[in-house]
Design a protein that fits this description.
Layout (H helix, E strand, L loop, with lengths): L4 H11 L10 E5 L2 E6 L7 E8 L6 E9 L7 H15 L4
Antiparallel strand pairs: 1-2, 2-3, 3-4
């Protein structure tokens, strides 16, 4: 993902636009907060990577990750907090 950056994310989002949330590889959780799922869906659990895309629309920053086996994510709040701090410290204008 680092080598192909945000263009990969935008392409996947476009391709998966009409899929159900549970079938997506990359999901938009909030404004500029994304979740990459590996694999997309599995009963034993999935690895979730929470990330954001910089305003230049080229770079990606991983905010947090977890191996999710339960219905409710455990690291999502932490990722949201990191994103909020990043936006404040970097003076992101949305």
């Amino acid at each position: 993902m680092d080598k192909i950056g945000a263009s990969y994310v935008f392409n996947v989002l476009k391709e998966e636009r009409n899929l159900k949330h549970s079938k997506k590889t990359i999901a938009v959780l909030r404004e500029n907060l994304y979740e990459l799922r590996v694999p997309k869906q599995k009963k034993e659990g999935v690895f979730r990577i929470y990330f954001t895309i910089f305003p230049d629309k080229e770079k990606i920053m991983i905010l947090d990750a977890e191996y999710k086996t339960e219905k409710e994510p455990k690291r999502l709040k932490c990722a949201e907090s990191k994103l909020k701090r990043l936006k404040k410290e970097a003076n992101w204008n949305e």
